Amino acid sequence: MRTDPGTPIGFAIAAVGIATAVLINGGSLLALVNLPALLIIGTGTLGAAMISTSYADVLHLPQLLRTALSGRPASDVHALIQTLVRASRRAREHGPLSLDAIVADPATDPFLAQGLALVVDQASHATVREVLQTDIAATQQQHLRGIELLECMGGYAPTMGIIGTVLGLVHVMANLGTEGTDVLATGVAVAFIATLYGICSANLLFLPLACNLRTQSAAEVLWHQIILEAVLGIQAGQNPRLLELRLKAFCRRPHPSPAIGSQAIAAPRLLRALWASSRPGA
Fold it and tell me: Taking Cα atoms as reference points, which of 134, 101, 140, 97 lies closest to residue 119?
């Protein structure tokens, strides 16, 4: 199975585009490096997210970032459907107990193995549906917690950037009478780096990764829904050809694009106001 390369390619395109724009304007990439600003954005955003969610959720942040950046291995839905149809034929020809070999196979999808095990154990139709639907709902809820964490961080990061900029401007204004104009101008420019960090981290990292995880979650839920319908069809003794047609209908359904939890952050009026307040005589 392969991994979707879209996430690293997207990051590369954004990074190269921004760096190229800076260099074309005669700027220096080293001038954008500011440790205090990075410290404010990192600790402030992380602390606010921990307050909004929980300590346990924040501990899973590295795993969330790793999953979003690397992506889950791409799954072949059509191959899954063929596997389910073969299981249906096997159950119809040799009885439900013949599915025990599929359940015992380590290569079998865990969710599918769970469903077929219920069929082998002769659980009722309602029990099978309830157990599998509960599993799907629990998976969705687990995914949602991670997505909401990244969306929270995407909302807080730009604000932390503004806080960093204000702190930098306070320092500049405090030295207004003792420093030269060139030094003050440099201080103002450095102060706005915090806002740049906040906006970029929100709109190029946290919010896109949250949307990425939402897309992956939708794909996994679809995978489980196909298995759910197949297991119920196998239990009911449905004709394998009719079952195949039902399952292929899932592939033809339009899947809505996941909504981004927060909008892109931009504060041009606030930035202009901060710039105006930093000028001598303002």
Answer: 97
Whether the CB-CB separation of 99 and 91 falls below 8 Å is answered with: yes
Count of Cβ atoms closer than 10 Å to residue 48 Cβ: 17
Buried b or exposed e, range 110-137, using 16+ CB within 10 angstroms: ebbbbbbbbbbeebeeeebbebbeebbe
Nearest by Cα to 154 from 215, 191, 217, 204: 204
**What is the amino acid identity at position 86?**
R
**Stretch among 32-41, 93-102, 203-212, 272-281 having the lowest mean pLDDT:** 272-281
The shares of helix, strand and coil residues in the chain, as percent rounded to the nearest 5, are 80, 0, 20
Q: Which amino acid is at 172?
A: V
Least Cα distance to 211 among 1, 10, 3 occurs for 10
SS3 state of residue 54? coil
**pLDDT at residue 253 in the model:** 58
Residue 129 to residues 27, 54, 188, 221, Cα–Cα distance (Å): 61, 32, 62, 15
